[in-house]
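Notes, Module 5: Reading structure tokens.

Key idea: the token line is not a picture. It is a compressed description, and you learn to read it the same way you learned to read a sequence, by spotting repeated patterns. We will look at two proteins. The first is printed below with its tokens.
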Amino acid sequence: MFDKLSDQARHVVVLASDAARTHHHNHLGTEHLLLALLADTTCTGTRILTHLTTISPHEMRDRLQELAEHPQPHE
């Protein structure tokens, strides 16, 4: 599966895995992927995310960190 990803996409997945481990999660969720995107400021996805909102990347990271630490149950 990873062989079909670009180098940059693989890097984001690695960062997301690190974020999941940091929060002691045994799954890789969207919150971890978003944290990874925000950590890689050279990524196109990061630029898109930060241009679509009025909050700063730092504030976005803080909010995502909080969500990752206290995940909500799925509806």
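Here is the second protein, with the sequence above and the tokens below, as before.
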Amino acid sequence: MAIVLLGAMVIGAVAAGVVWVAQEGHPAGDRVVGALAAGGATFIGVATLAFVIGSFLTS
């Protein structure tokens, strides 16, 4: 479980970095909100998908 969460965290951080760079030229507050939202949503999605696939394969 720790490996899944660590992997989801890394993927979420990469997604946040991509959104941060993509919003070049926007005010800093908007960039922070967008990057955190994208990173958090990616983390939740990847972790949930990984747990569902894991439970499907083990059952």
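Summary for the second protein:
- The mean pLDDT is 94.
- Residues 28-58 form the longest helix (31 residues).
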